[in-house]
Each structure stands twice: as structure tokens, then as C-alpha cells.
User: Fold Two-component system response regulator from Rhodoferax lacus.
Amino acid sequence: MAKTILVIDDSASLRQVVKMALTGAGYAVLEAGDGQAALALLDGRQINMVVCDVNMPVMNGIEFVKAAKALPAYKFLPILMLTTESQEEKKEQGKAAGAKAWMVKPFAPTQLVNAVSKLCT
Assistant:
């Protein structure tokens, strides 16, 4: 069975690019437009990894990571932040919240697939 990646970004076009790269590499993809919509998908279903933006309406990526890590079933879920943010301060906030990796947009789809294959358990 394909591993499932949850992609969270408020840009539908970016979610589409990420989805095409990941499905092309054999992953199943779930999508959410913000952190709150993504949290609703953490309902006990098997999710192997999350690719998450930082700047989103309703609930941002750092808030999502904290909320996801507070759920016992998703405590060890690997989360890759995919964002335009490159400041060390933001990276530290992400790491403190529980994010495993940080990738700055724009990105090469092969770079994303390589990162996912390393992190996805």
C-alpha cells in the first residue's frame, strides 16, 4: 500500500505541484488548505508524513505542528516545512514545535521527493 502524505498549503497551485511530484513517486496524497482543515484529517487514519507551509490563514504551519504533535497517534509524525520563510528564527520555531525538516520555496520536485523518501517512515 502506498504511503500517505498530507500536503498543507493555502495555495491550490502549489498543492497541485507537490501532489504531482509525490504521486509520480508512488505516494498517496491528502490535501488541506490550512492547518485547521489539516487537523480535521488527523482523525486516526494512517498518515506517514506531512508537508506543510508556514504562512496560512486560519491556523499557520507552526500552530499546526504543535497541535498535531499534541495528538498521541501523531506524536512521531515526520513533518517537513515547505515555505518561503528562510530566517533562522522561523526555522527554530518550527524545530521547537516538532518539524523534522525545512525546505525553502521555490523548490525542485526531485529535491522534495528525495526529502520525503528520507523522512517518510
The longest helix spans residues 12-24. Residues 82 and 107 are 9 Å apart (CA to CA). The two ends are 13 Å apart (CA to CA). Helices lie at 12-24, 35-41, 61-69, 88-97, 109-119.
